[in-house]
Design a protein that fits this description.
Elements lengths: L1 E2 L5 H13 L7 E2 L9 H8 L17 H8 L3 E6 L1 H9 L5 H8 L4 E5 L3 H5 L1 H12 L3 E2 L3 E4 L6 E5 L3 H12 L10 E6 L4 E2 L5 E2 L6 H12 L3 E6 L11 E4 L3 H11 L4 E4 L6 E3 L20 E3 L3 H6 L7 E8 L3 H11 L4 E6 L16 E2 L1 E5 L2 E4 L3 E2 H17 L1
Parallel strand pairs: 1-2, 3-4, 4-5, 8-11, 8-13, 11-12, 13-16, 16-17
Antiparallel strand pairs: 6-7, 9-10, 14-15, 17-19, 18-21, 19-20
Helix pairs in contact: 1-2, 1-8, 3-5, 4-7, 9-13
The structure holds flavin mononucleotide (FMN).
């Protein structure tokens, strides 16, 4: 791992931990600038290895250590990849240990750029990126969002450590990527249907199952585009996430993402919205009658995509039911034009934790398709996600 001199260098401490947890040996090179942000002591303690700092180090270079370093690794990750490191490699500079290792390596290189949005969008950085990609360098991120500098936002945030781990694993284990090249459009979370500017109709969906499935599909190599309703959990690693509020926004975003190889609809979309959203906050006034809400039906996203002119080859819907779980799912399979319905019993009597399936961490699902019904054992939502991702991979590569 080559650590460049940017504020995001602190995130590499977590990245080293995440990689070591997964059994990888991590050997670090720090640029001089990187040492202004984090210390070789922390990097050495977390990587449990010597940290390499200097091209002209007499102890490390008695056997031309920079060439050895560049060859012993299976992969070189540059995180954060500064504008400067990108420029150096794009132009063949080798005047410090980091750039010399990058120039001398015969192994794949993955860069996780991190910089101010203006530096990232500068024509020089854009040119360097095109050159590096043409030279076979792979990139993860950067993402959009708040910068460490106050008041700055835009594209330039370093990818999160788990996203970088997913990109590393994809490069190191291409055979575990049965979904490489497959585009999947998904939904997750609840929708919020406004009553007035401060109130809304919602449901208890947390997005945990949908987000876990998105991450599990991305880990199998899929290009996952996730349309998420309002949730409080982080965007899943390695997934392109779009944030929406209402059912209508969710449908428009999904349709804009077609065509796709698969559409997987996990979101608990509100069936109804008010037909008269107030533009001002509704006031409680003495003597005034209690307002009544009049509801209209929302678009049915699963049914719309199940019968769409650009219908993905595989359409999977999730059904939250409190009674007659399997019979209801069988009905939905046909009505909604889906290939598979993943039915879960969200009644509080489902025996899963005090809050049940919605919002909880465990789930029990039944897969209903034209082939019949298959019930998976109760498990954590992450484990259910892995099992479902494997089944979806099977269906998409059949
Ligand atoms: C406080 C501070 C933050 C910086 N953050 C970044 C950054 O996020 N990305 C970047 O490309 N350069 C950043 N720089 C500039 C680099 O540190 C500078 O270009 C340095 O020469 C990079 O050296 P290196 O590429 O050898 O690590 C920052 C500089 C300072 C003083």
């Amino acid at each position: 791992m080559i650590i460049g001199g940017g504020i995001a260098a602190y995130k590499c401490l977590d990245l080293i931990r995440r990689l070591r947890e997964r059994g990888y040996a991590v050997r670090c090179v720090m640029t001089e600038a990187a040492q202004q942000f984090i210390t070789p002591l922390s990097v050495g303690a977390l990587s449990a290895d010597h940290v390499f700092l200097d091209l002209f180090d007499r102890a490390d270079e008695h056997d031309v250590g920079h060439i050895r370093l560049s060859r012993e690794a299976d992969l070189i990750v540059v995180a954060p990849a500064t504008a400067d490191l990108m420029a150096k490699l794009a132009n063949g500079h080798a005047n410090d240990l980091a750039s010399a290792v990058l120039m001398a390596t015969d192994k794949p290189v993955l860069m996780a750029p991190a910089m101010n949005p203006r530096m990232w969008s500068h024509p020089a950085t854009r040119r360097n990126r095109v050159t590096l990609e043409a030279d076979g360098v792979r990139f993860v991120g950067p993402n959009k969002g708040e910068m460490a500098e106050s008041g700055e936002a835009g594209e330039g945030r370093m990818a999160e450590p788990l996203e970088i781990v997913a990109a590393i694993e994809a490069l190191l284990n291409p055979k575990d990527q049965p979904l490489a090249g497959k585009r999947i459009v998904m939904t997750s979370g609840p929708t919020h249907e406004p009553i007035d500017p401060v109130r809304y109709i919602a449901n208890r969906s947390s997005g945990k199952q949908g987000h876990a499935l998105a991450a599990a599909l991305a880990a199998l190599g899929a290009d996952v585009h996730l349309v998420s309703g309002p949730v409080t959990i982080p965007d899943p690693a390695g997934v392109t996430t779009y944030h929406v509020e209402t059912a209508r926004e969710m449908l428009a975003q999904v349709e804009g993402l077609l065509p796709a190889d698969a559409g997987i609809f996990v979101a608990a979309v509100a069936d109804w919205r008010t037909d008269n959203e107030a533009s001002q906050k509704m006031k409680k006034e003495k003597g005034k009658p209690v307002p009544s809400l009049s509801l209209v039906e929302n678009p049915d996203i699963l049914a719309t995509i199940g019968h769409h002119a650009q219908r993905p080859g595989l359409v999977v819907g999730f059904a939250a039911e409190t009674n007659d779980v399997i019979d209801n799912a069988k009905g939905k399979l046909v009505r909604k034009g889906a290939d598979m319905i993943v039915a879960n019993d969200v009644s509080h009597g489902s025996g899963i934790g005090p809050s049940g399936v919605m919002g909880g961490d465990r789930n029990r699902v039944h897969l209903v398709s034209a082939d019949g019904v298959e019930s998976l054992d109760e498990a954590s939502k992450d484990e259910i996600a892995r099992q479902l991702a494997a089944k979806i991979a099977e269906a998409l590569t059949r």
